[in-house]
Write a structure and sequence with these properties.
Layout lengths: L9 E2 L15 E2 L11 H21 L4 E5 L16 E4 L4 H7 L6 E4 L3 H12 L3 E4 L8 H11 L4 E4 L13 H9 L3 E8 L2 E3 L8 E3 L4 E6 L11 H24 L5 H12 L4
Parallel strand pairs: 3-11, 4-7, 4-8, 5-6, 5-7
Antiparallel strand pairs: 1-2, 8-11, 9-10
């Protein structure tokens, strides 16, 4: 028997990052697993791109020097026997995040489009599982697969503004999944001291330079009660958006702070961290 899709979340479309758009209508976000039609040329590109990206991650990843703020039990003190969580982060820091959380068998919601075909090969080689789904068409199988994996003990993760933006506007998938499964939402962002920023990409994708320092800022978990109504779900969505902006702000300004300012931030984030 397959899982019955039971995810639904109406939310107000968002305009500028962190601000709710002034639109009265509600939008229902779906997820779909239909594979796209790819040309022969695209199919030929998939293994080549996957190989190049994987080589870059495996070359640069071991040189990164991470400091973790907050979230010790899901960061530096992580153990596989702990209860799984629902993770969410901005697409632009996926390079550093993919390396840091590798080999944990977390399941990622992976787009079904052309980019998703080669990214799937990359992340599965780095120790992740994937659930195929897209937020642009109809079906909920991707989230249903993630719910099943959570029940089996695997973490679940979303690039929350992916696969194509808008940048820094959170989609509701983690809230939907957390309500269905009763798992906590863990939000984080990775900041890099030195990186190449791909300015022409929609997410301003960052590739770390060799031997750079990195900071992983992990927020306190967000709980989503399973009996929340529509208004409550929207409030959790807004809370998630606000906290994602907060961790990004800290991570991306970290290396411009004085040591005294960093120490104050450490005391705030590491106080009572779980």
């Amino acid at each position: 028997m397959g899982l019955v899709p039971r995810f639904a979340l109406y939310y107000t479309p968002m305009g500028e990052p962190g601000k709710m758009a002034e639109q009265p209508e509600r939008v229902l976000v779906h997820y779909d697993t239909r594979l796209p039609h790819l040309s022969r040329w695209q199919r030929m590109q998939i293994p080549v791109i996957a190989w190049a990206v994987l080589a870059a991650i495996r070359t640069l990843g071991p040189t990164l020097r991470f400091e973790v703020l907050g979230g010790q039990k899901v960061g530096r003190d992580y153990r596989p026997d702990q209860p799984p969580n629902v993770y969410a982060f901005w697409h632009g820091c996926i390079f550093a995040a993919t390396w840091y959380f590798r080999n944990r068998k977390a399941v990622l919601l992976n787009t079904t489009n052309f980019d998703g075909q080669w990214t799937r090969r990359v992340i599965e080689r780095l120790g992740y599982l994937t659930a195929q789904g897209s937020s642009t068409r109809g079906g909920l199988k991707g989230l249903a697969v993630m719910a099943k994996r959570l029940e089996e003990g695997s973490d679940a993760a979303f690039t929350i503004d992916g696969p194509r933006g808008p940048r820094y506007v959170a989609k509701p998938g983690p809230v939907m999944l957390a309500r269905r499964t009763g798992r906590l939402i863990v939000l984080f962002h990775a900041g890099l001291e030195r990186a190449w920023t791909l300015r022409k990409t929609w997410d301003q994708f960052q590739v770390p330079k060799p031997f750079t320092r990195a900071v992983m800022v992990i927020a306190p978990p967000i709980e989503v009660p399973q009996d929340l109504d529509r208004e409550g779900l929207e409030q959790k969505h807004a809370e998630m958006q606000k906290m994602l902006e907060r961790v990004r702000d800290v991570a991306e300004t970290w290396f411009s702070l004085s040591e005294a300012e960093r120490e104050r931030e450490r005391s705030v984030w590491n106080k009572g961290a779980v």
